[in-house]
């Protein structure tokens, strides 16, 4: 990737050492363009672009560490600085789009991912992120890891952590020619299930309404205890998901799978956020290995838990950058890959 002669440059935010390392892997053997990104005494972000970017296409690589909001401001300020330096196009390479889980209206909340996408577009004028335009897939790399690094993977079974994740698990199972199991129910009530006055139907009849209006009284929902639909006895259980952050559900699922006879348990996820005491919980659990990609920095977590392994996806990011700059079709990157992956 000849950055100097090709009319485009690759910048890396300095949110973490992992971001710089990922940028070097993507641009190898060419260097990453210099850009000073400084935090002032008041913790304000200041950007100094050291080289001329006039009329060029700029790619900004930004991973998202634990300090999510600081990383977002770094990206916004960098995009705006490059825009005011007369860059032709600004394209954000964001392996993990923050707030992506907040993409639906829940109760009295808001769709934060839409707000963030609007902010990025505003900062860079014509800034494109892979989230709204080209949502790249890590499944080929994870499937390759299963085939090459898990001994006797032919004796494995793909497990969906919940019915909502069944499509993703089914896609993995079909590609690997393996069986499929689904975990149903929950070990305990989650925070999202707590009453806030908006549950429907209400548990009791409301007698304060119109005297002539009496709606039928329905029983409140009750989630069944956690169970496994499918035979995992004597098999390697591979749980697949998109994000592993709060590991409580994964630990509970691993215990059930062990009870049902699975002799090894793997977790495969694209993004390893692994917040709070997730490394300790994984280390003390029945989980044998957690495999995530390098879309999110997790070096500290790996030091705390040797069970965490990393798969490099810089190759697909580098190819996406090359194709976008050359105006080539992105279809090759999605060949035989469905949205369920």
Strand percentage lies at 15-25%
Structural class assignment: alpha/beta
CA radius of gyration: 23 Å
Based on Cα principal axes, name the global outline.
Answer: globular
Sheet with the most strands, sense and barrel status: 7 strands, mixed
Largest beta sheet: strand ordering:
9-8-7-10-11-12-13
Quantity of strands, as a count: 13
Helix content: 25-40%
The average pLDDT is 83
Our measurement of the CA-to-CA distance between the termini, rounded to an integer number of angstroms, reads 28 Å
Number of helices: 9
Detailed description of the structure:
There is one protein chain. The protein is an alpha/beta fold and 341 residues long. It is built from nine helices and 13 strands. Strands 9-8-7-10-11-12-13 form a seven-stranded mixed beta sheet, with helices on both faces. Strands 1-4-5-6 form a four-stranded parallel beta sheet, sandwiched between helices. Helix 1 packs across helix 9 (314-326) and helix 2 runs parallel beside helix 3 (112-124). The longest helix has 17 residues, at 68-84. It is globular and about 60 Å long. The model is unreliable at 1-5, 127-132 and 190-202 (pLDDT under 50).
């Amino acid at each position: 990737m000849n950055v100097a002669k090709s009319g485009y440059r690759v910048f890396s935010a300095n949110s973490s050492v992992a971001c710089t390392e990922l940028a070097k892997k993507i641009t190898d053997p060419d260097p990453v363009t210099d850009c000073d990104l400084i935090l002032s005494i008041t913790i304000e972000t200041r950007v100094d672009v050291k080289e001329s970017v006039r009329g060029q296409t700029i790619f900004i690589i930004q991973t998202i560490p634990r300090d999510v909001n600081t990383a977002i401001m770094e990206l916004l300020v960098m995009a705006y600085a490059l825009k005011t330096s007369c860059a032709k196009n600004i394209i954000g390479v964001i392996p993990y789009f923050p707030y992506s889980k907040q993409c639906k209206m829940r109760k009295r909340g808001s769709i934060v991912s839409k707000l963030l996408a609007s902010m990025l577009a505003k900062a860079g004028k014509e800034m494109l992120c892979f989230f709204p335009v080209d949502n790249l897939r890590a499944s080929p790399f994870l499937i390759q890891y299963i085939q090459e690094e898990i001994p006797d993977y032919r004796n494995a079974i793909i497990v969906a952590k919940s019915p909502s994740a069944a499509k993703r698990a089914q896609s993995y199972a079909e590609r690997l020619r393996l069986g499929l199991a689904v975990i149903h129910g929950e070990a305990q009530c989650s925070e999202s299930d707590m009453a806030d006055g908006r549950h429907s139907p209400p548990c009791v009849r409301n007698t304060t309404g119109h005297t002539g209006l009496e709606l039928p009284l329905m029983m409140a929902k009750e989630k069944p205890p956690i169970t496994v639909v499918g035979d995992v006895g004597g098999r390697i259980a591979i749980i697949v998901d998109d994000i592993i952050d709060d590991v409580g559900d994964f630990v509970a699922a691993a215990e059930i799978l062990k009870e049902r006879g699975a002799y090894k348990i793997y977790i495969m996820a694209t993004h390893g956020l692994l917040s709070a005491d997730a490394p300790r919980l994984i280390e003390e659990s029945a989980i044998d290995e957690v495999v995530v990609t390098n879309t999110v920095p997790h070096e500290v977590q790996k030091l705390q838990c040797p069970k965490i392994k990393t798969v490099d996806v810089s190759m697909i990011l580098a190819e996406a950058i090359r194709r976008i700059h050359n105006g080539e079709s992105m279809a090759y990157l999605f060949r035989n890959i469905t949205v369920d992956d």
